[in-house]
Amino acid sequence: MSATGRRKIVVAGSGPVALEVARQLRDRGEALCLVDYDGERLEKARLAGFEVQQVNLQDDDELLSLGLGTEVDVLFSLLDNDADNVFLVISARALAPGISIVSISETEETVKRLQAAGATKVIDPYQISGYRIYEMVHRPVIAEIMDRTVFGTDVDLEIAEIPVPAGSFLDGEYLDRLSLSSRYNLVVLGVVDRDYGDHLIFATNPKRHRIDVDDVIVVIGQREELERLRKEMAGTA
Question: What confidence tier does 90 reach under pLDDT thresholds 50, 70, 90?
Protein backbone atom coordinates (compact mmCIF):
# COMPACT_ATOMS: atom_id res chain seq x y z
CA MET A 1 0.00 0.00 0.00
CA SER A 2 1.04 3.58 -0.57
CA ALA A 3 1.48 6.02 2.28
CA THR A 4 -2.12 7.20 1.80
CA GLY A 5 -3.44 3.69 2.47
CA ARG A 6 -4.75 3.32 -1.08
CA ARG A 7 -3.39 0.91 -3.64
CA LYS A 8 -0.97 2.54 -6.08
CA ILE A 9 -1.64 1.34 -9.60
CA VAL A 10 0.40 1.83 -12.77
CA VAL A 11 -1.38 1.45 -16.10
CA ALA A 12 1.14 0.91 -18.90
CA GLY A 13 -0.26 2.01 -22.22
CA SER A 14 -2.33 4.87 -23.55
CA GLY A 15 -4.50 3.21 -26.17
CA PRO A 16 -8.28 2.74 -25.96
CA VAL A 17 -8.15 -0.31 -23.65
CA ALA A 18 -5.66 1.33 -21.27
CA LEU A 19 -7.67 4.56 -21.14
CA GLU A 20 -10.90 2.71 -20.38
CA VAL A 21 -9.27 0.69 -17.60
CA ALA A 22 -7.74 3.86 -16.18
CA ARG A 23 -11.11 5.61 -16.29
CA GLN A 24 -12.80 2.76 -14.44
CA LEU A 25 -10.08 2.74 -11.79
CA ARG A 26 -10.20 6.51 -11.39
CA ASP A 27 -13.97 6.44 -10.98
CA ARG A 28 -13.48 3.97 -8.12
CA GLY A 29 -11.10 6.36 -6.39
CA GLU A 30 -7.94 4.35 -7.05
CA ALA A 31 -4.56 6.11 -7.07
CA LEU A 32 -3.08 5.51 -10.49
CA CYS A 33 -0.56 6.75 -13.01
CA LEU A 34 -0.75 6.21 -16.77
CA VAL A 35 2.67 5.55 -18.32
CA ASP A 36 3.86 5.08 -21.89
CA TYR A 37 6.67 6.04 -24.25
CA ASP A 38 4.26 7.85 -26.63
CA GLY A 39 4.30 11.50 -25.55
CA GLU A 40 1.52 12.56 -27.90
CA ARG A 41 -0.91 9.96 -26.58
CA LEU A 42 0.04 10.76 -23.00
CA GLU A 43 -0.68 14.43 -23.54
CA LYS A 44 -4.22 13.55 -24.63
CA ALA A 45 -4.58 11.40 -21.51
CA ARG A 46 -3.30 14.26 -19.35
CA LEU A 47 -5.87 16.62 -20.87
CA ALA A 48 -8.49 13.99 -20.02
CA GLY A 49 -7.52 14.37 -16.37
CA PHE A 50 -5.10 11.49 -15.81
CA GLU A 51 -1.77 11.60 -14.02
CA VAL A 52 0.74 10.60 -16.70
CA GLN A 53 4.45 9.95 -16.98
CA GLN A 54 6.49 9.36 -20.12
CA VAL A 55 8.94 6.49 -19.56
CA ASN A 56 10.99 4.01 -21.50
CA LEU A 57 9.24 0.79 -20.51
CA GLN A 58 12.29 -1.26 -21.54
CA ASP A 59 14.55 0.52 -19.06
CA ASP A 60 14.68 -1.14 -15.63
CA ASP A 61 15.82 2.05 -13.89
CA GLU A 62 12.85 3.97 -15.24
CA LEU A 63 10.49 1.17 -14.18
CA LEU A 64 11.96 1.28 -10.69
CA SER A 65 11.46 5.04 -10.63
CA LEU A 66 7.72 4.41 -10.94
CA GLY A 67 7.76 2.61 -7.59
CA LEU A 68 7.63 -1.00 -8.76
CA GLY A 69 8.50 -3.16 -5.81
CA THR A 70 7.94 -0.34 -3.30
CA GLU A 71 4.91 1.93 -3.74
CA VAL A 72 3.17 0.21 -6.65
CA ASP A 73 0.89 -2.73 -5.79
CA VAL A 74 -0.63 -3.43 -9.22
CA LEU A 75 0.61 -3.11 -12.80
CA PHE A 76 -1.71 -3.22 -15.80
CA SER A 77 0.35 -4.05 -18.90
CA LEU A 78 -2.01 -2.85 -21.65
CA LEU A 79 0.31 -1.98 -24.50
CA ASP A 80 -0.82 -2.30 -28.11
CA ASN A 81 1.79 -4.89 -29.03
CA ASP A 82 1.84 -8.42 -27.54
CA ALA A 83 5.64 -8.59 -27.62
CA ASP A 84 5.89 -5.32 -25.69
CA ASN A 85 3.51 -6.69 -23.05
CA VAL A 86 5.56 -9.88 -22.68
CA PHE A 87 8.79 -7.90 -22.29
CA LEU A 88 7.25 -5.56 -19.72
CA VAL A 89 5.78 -8.43 -17.70
CA ILE A 90 9.16 -10.20 -17.60
CA SER A 91 10.90 -7.01 -16.45
CA ALA A 92 8.27 -6.09 -13.87
CA ARG A 93 8.17 -9.58 -12.36
CA ALA A 94 11.96 -9.63 -12.03
CA LEU A 95 12.02 -6.18 -10.41
CA ALA A 96 9.01 -6.70 -8.15
CA PRO A 97 8.34 -10.40 -7.42
CA GLY A 98 5.30 -9.66 -5.25
CA ILE A 99 3.46 -7.25 -7.54
CA SER A 100 0.14 -8.15 -9.17
CA ILE A 101 0.35 -7.93 -12.97
CA VAL A 102 -2.67 -7.89 -15.28
CA SER A 103 -2.13 -8.00 -19.03
CA ILE A 104 -4.05 -8.48 -22.26
CA SER A 105 -3.47 -10.74 -25.23
CA GLU A 106 -4.95 -11.27 -28.66
CA THR A 107 -3.85 -14.90 -29.11
CA GLU A 108 -3.82 -18.10 -27.06
CA GLU A 109 -0.10 -18.46 -27.75
CA THR A 110 0.63 -15.06 -26.21
CA VAL A 111 -1.58 -15.88 -23.21
CA LYS A 112 0.78 -18.76 -22.42
CA ARG A 113 3.82 -16.54 -22.92
CA LEU A 114 2.46 -13.86 -20.61
CA GLN A 115 1.65 -16.43 -17.94
CA ALA A 116 5.13 -17.92 -18.25
CA ALA A 117 6.58 -14.41 -18.03
CA GLY A 118 4.87 -13.88 -14.70
CA ALA A 119 1.51 -12.26 -15.37
CA THR A 120 -0.98 -12.77 -12.53
CA LYS A 121 -3.98 -12.47 -14.84
CA VAL A 122 -4.23 -12.45 -18.64
CA ILE A 123 -7.36 -11.13 -20.33
CA ASP A 124 -8.45 -11.72 -23.91
CA PRO A 125 -10.64 -8.70 -24.81
CA TYR A 126 -11.89 -10.37 -27.98
CA GLN A 127 -13.11 -13.40 -26.03
CA ILE A 128 -14.96 -11.08 -23.65
CA SER A 129 -16.51 -9.22 -26.59
CA GLY A 130 -17.50 -12.55 -28.10
CA TYR A 131 -19.13 -13.53 -24.82
CA ARG A 132 -21.28 -10.41 -24.90
CA ILE A 133 -22.33 -10.98 -28.53
CA TYR A 134 -23.35 -14.55 -27.68
CA GLU A 135 -25.41 -13.33 -24.73
CA MET A 136 -27.15 -10.69 -26.86
CA VAL A 137 -28.23 -13.36 -29.33
CA HIS A 138 -29.00 -16.28 -27.01
CA ARG A 139 -29.75 -14.70 -23.62
CA PRO A 140 -31.36 -11.28 -24.08
CA VAL A 141 -32.28 -10.95 -20.40
CA ILE A 142 -28.66 -11.38 -19.32
CA ALA A 143 -27.55 -9.08 -22.14
CA GLU A 144 -29.82 -6.40 -20.70
CA ILE A 145 -28.21 -6.85 -17.27
CA MET A 146 -24.76 -6.66 -18.87
CA ASP A 147 -25.71 -3.40 -20.57
CA ARG A 148 -27.07 -1.98 -17.31
CA THR A 149 -24.07 -3.00 -15.20
CA VAL A 150 -20.87 -3.91 -17.02
CA PHE A 151 -21.40 -1.52 -19.92
CA GLY A 152 -23.52 1.01 -18.02
CA THR A 153 -22.93 3.50 -15.24
CA ASP A 154 -23.98 1.60 -12.11
CA VAL A 155 -21.71 2.24 -9.13
CA ASP A 156 -19.80 -0.27 -7.00
CA LEU A 157 -19.52 -2.72 -9.87
CA GLU A 158 -17.03 -5.53 -9.28
CA ILE A 159 -15.80 -8.74 -10.81
CA ALA A 160 -15.58 -11.28 -7.99
CA GLU A 161 -14.04 -14.73 -7.66
CA ILE A 162 -16.11 -16.72 -5.15
CA PRO A 163 -15.05 -20.23 -4.03
CA VAL A 164 -17.82 -22.82 -3.80
CA PRO A 165 -17.90 -24.14 -0.20
CA ALA A 166 -19.10 -27.57 0.91
CA GLY A 167 -22.88 -27.64 1.16
CA SER A 168 -23.37 -24.75 -1.26
CA PHE A 169 -26.47 -24.72 -3.44
CA LEU A 170 -24.11 -24.37 -6.42
CA ASP A 171 -22.42 -27.71 -5.79
CA GLY A 172 -23.51 -30.06 -8.58
CA GLU A 173 -25.00 -27.33 -10.80
CA TYR A 174 -23.98 -27.17 -14.46
CA LEU A 175 -22.28 -23.97 -15.58
CA ASP A 176 -24.28 -23.56 -18.78
CA ARG A 177 -27.56 -23.72 -16.79
CA LEU A 178 -26.44 -21.48 -13.93
CA SER A 179 -28.28 -18.16 -13.77
CA LEU A 180 -27.96 -15.69 -10.90
CA SER A 181 -29.57 -12.76 -12.70
CA SER A 182 -33.07 -12.98 -11.20
CA ARG A 183 -32.10 -13.88 -7.64
CA TYR A 184 -29.03 -11.69 -7.24
CA ASN A 185 -28.88 -9.42 -10.32
CA LEU A 186 -25.46 -10.90 -11.09
CA VAL A 187 -23.92 -12.10 -14.33
CA VAL A 188 -21.95 -15.36 -14.34
CA LEU A 189 -18.84 -15.12 -16.53
CA GLY A 190 -17.54 -18.60 -15.83
CA VAL A 191 -15.73 -20.84 -13.39
CA VAL A 192 -12.14 -21.71 -12.49
CA ASP A 193 -11.75 -25.43 -11.81
CA ARG A 194 -8.42 -26.01 -10.05
CA ASP A 195 -8.32 -29.55 -11.41
CA TYR A 196 -7.86 -28.02 -14.86
CA GLY A 197 -5.50 -25.18 -13.89
CA ASP A 198 -6.16 -21.48 -13.42
CA HIS A 199 -7.92 -20.80 -16.71
CA LEU A 200 -11.42 -19.36 -16.75
CA ILE A 201 -13.99 -21.70 -18.29
CA PHE A 202 -16.51 -19.31 -19.81
CA ALA A 203 -20.21 -19.90 -19.26
CA THR A 204 -20.62 -19.98 -23.04
CA ASN A 205 -18.17 -22.86 -23.42
CA PRO A 206 -19.96 -25.54 -25.46
CA LYS A 207 -18.52 -28.31 -23.28
CA ARG A 208 -20.72 -28.85 -20.19
CA HIS A 209 -18.99 -28.27 -16.89
CA ARG A 210 -20.26 -29.49 -13.53
CA ILE A 211 -19.53 -27.13 -10.62
CA ASP A 212 -17.97 -28.81 -7.59
CA VAL A 213 -16.75 -27.80 -4.13
CA ASP A 214 -13.62 -25.60 -4.28
CA ASP A 215 -14.37 -24.46 -7.83
CA VAL A 216 -14.31 -20.66 -8.12
CA ILE A 217 -17.21 -18.94 -9.87
CA VAL A 218 -16.49 -15.60 -11.53
CA VAL A 219 -19.38 -13.14 -11.49
CA ILE A 220 -20.03 -9.47 -12.23
CA GLY A 221 -22.37 -7.23 -10.28
CA GLN A 222 -22.83 -4.67 -7.56
CA ARG A 223 -20.96 -5.08 -4.30
CA GLU A 224 -24.09 -5.58 -2.19
CA GLU A 225 -25.31 -8.40 -4.42
CA LEU A 226 -21.93 -10.10 -4.39
CA GLU A 227 -21.80 -9.98 -0.59
CA ARG A 228 -25.31 -11.43 -0.37
CA LEU A 229 -24.29 -14.30 -2.66
CA ARG A 230 -21.15 -14.96 -0.60
CA LYS A 231 -23.15 -15.13 2.65
CA GLU A 232 -25.84 -17.40 1.25
CA MET A 233 -23.24 -19.71 -0.30
CA ALA A 234 -21.51 -19.92 3.09
CA GLY A 235 -24.82 -20.40 4.92
CA THR A 236 -24.34 -17.27 7.05
CA ALA A 237 -27.17 -15.18 5.64
Answer: very high
